[in-house]
TrEMBL record:
This is Peroxisome assembly protein 12. The keyword Cell division does not apply. It comes from Coemansia reversa (strain ATCC 12441 / NRRL 1564). It is a multi-pass membrane protein. Component of the PEX2-PEX10-PEX12 retrotranslocation channel, composed of PEX2, PEX10 and PEX12. PANTHER family: PEROXISOME ASSEMBLY PROTEIN 12, PEROXISOME ASSEMBLY PROTEIN 12 PEROXIN-12. Residues 28-289 form the Pex N-terminal domain. Coiled coil: none annotated. Component of a retrotranslocation channel required for peroxisome organization by mediating export of the PEX5 receptor from peroxisomes to the cytosol, thereby promoting PEX5 recycling. It is found in: Peroxisome membrane. It comes from the Eukaryota. One of its GO terms (molecular function) is ubiquitin-protein transferase activity.
Length: 375
């Protein structure tokens, strides 16, 4: 029954500790989704609080890497697997020691971190660099007609003959750039191909490693057994060792409290990060759906209330069509941000003198004056 054998291979086979390819793929998918999900949540809030969050958005990848370094280190050290591996009930074990004492060494943790956090960051930076160096979408659409930034640079280098050493350096840089442009797509292809090959080999039990990185690290990913969970329960929360420390000074007590809150927070991520993915998926659906458009078609909101005239300001004329400054019909009507309209010469002179709207006394600059084209 080849079909049945194939299916049982897909589902993990006789080795109950070996996660199925489905679990591995789901786990990789989840870890790929975390970054865009968090970026989306940040960008939603950046619109609301631009002062604090726009900068965070510009450095999002680095910030994300820094946060994930902390998170992954916590999970690798306390649960023996990356955050998403632990979420799917898996852990990392040293190859060849699948029996009892199979936990990772400190070195394994750091090397795992390099592949879990460092590699994606470097890859994403290189992708961006390639996008920029190759001229991005514009170059692909316009083909040869689109002069590349670095080709223009090459011309300028050729013209400048003043400093030979500087010129050599520039030529070298350009050559590196050209090599990068030429070979990066191939490297990228190999990267994705290697992942694919390992998936297939893993599925057919040709290898115990589900990714080339784990092969380099010499680590297998295994399902957590009932014994693992029991051991984890017996150990209690990761903070128990800290809590049990003899209570000496107030300083130590505070330090323990901070550590406990921090560790508690990292454990809480098990709930929070998946929730952020659901939030992201929900927002994606929301913006695509008709539902969202229907709600946007609701009536135009009422205009904001007009700014009240200031008691020390110029009084509003009885006839609203007159200019409040010269009290004559407006010539060349112009508006200030407060919403009141005057003759252009009157308001220009007034703002030049006082820097304020004559009626509300709200601050206004000459650049704020807007000409009205009513006919
Ligand atoms: Zn006037």
């Amino acid at each position: 029954m080849p079909t049945m054998e194939f299916m049982s291979d897909m589902l993990g086979g006789a080795d109950s500790g070996k996660p199925s390819l489905f679990e591995i793929v789901a786990q990789h998918k989840m870890s790929d989704l975390l970054e865009p999900a968090l970026r989306h949540v940040t960008s939603v809030y950046a619109h609301r609080y631009p002062r604090y969050l726009v900068r965070a958005l510009n450095w999002h990848e680095e910030l994300y890497a820094a946060v994930m370094l902390m998170v992954e280190r916590h999970y690798l050290r306390n649960y023996g697997g990356s955050f998403t591996e632990h979420f799917y009930g898996m852990k990392r074990v040293r190859t060849g020691k699948l029996g009892g004492g199979d936990s990772m060494t400190r070195g394994d943790v750091w090397r795992s971190l390099a592949f879990l956090v460092g590699l994606p960051l470097v890859k994403s930076r290189l992708d961006q660099l390639y996008e920029r160096e190759s001229g991005g979408e514009a170059a692909r659409l316009l083909g040869g007609a689109f002069a590349r930034h670095s080709d223009l640079q090459a011309d300028s280098v050729a013209e400048d003959t003043t400093n030979a050493r500087w010129r050599r350096l520039q030529t070298f840089k350009l050559a590196i750039g050209r090599l990068f442009r030429q070979y990066y797509p191939h490297a990228n292809f190999v990267y994705h191909m290697a992942t694919m090959v390992y998936y297939v080999a893993y599925m057919f039990d040709r290898t115990g490693y589900n990714s080339p990185w784990l092969h380099i690290l010499g680590l297998h990913v295994r399902r957590m057994s009932a014994a693992d969970y029991r051991a984890m329960d017996a150990r209690g929360p990761a903070t128990s060792s800290l809590a049990a420390a003899p209570n000496g000074s107030a300083l130590r007590a505070t330090r323990n409290l901070v550590a406990r809150v921090l560790f508690g927070g990292l454990d809480f991520l098990k709930v929070l990060l998946p929730l952020s993915i659901f939030f992201y998926r929900f927002l994606e659906w929301w913006y695509r759906s008709d539902f969202h458009k229907r709600i946007q078609q609701t009536p135009v909101p009422p205009p904001p209330l007009p700014l009240r005239p200031h008691v020390d300001g110029v009084a509003l004329p009885e006839d609203q069509s007159l200019c409040a400054i010269c009290e004559k019909p407006r010539t060349n009507p112009a508006m200030v941000p407060s919403g009141y309209v005057f003759c252009y010469p009157c308001i220009h002179r007034h703002i030049l003198d006082s820097g304020r709207c004559p009626i509300t006394l709200a601050r206004a600059r000459l650049e704020d004056i807007r000409k009205l084209y009513s006919d």
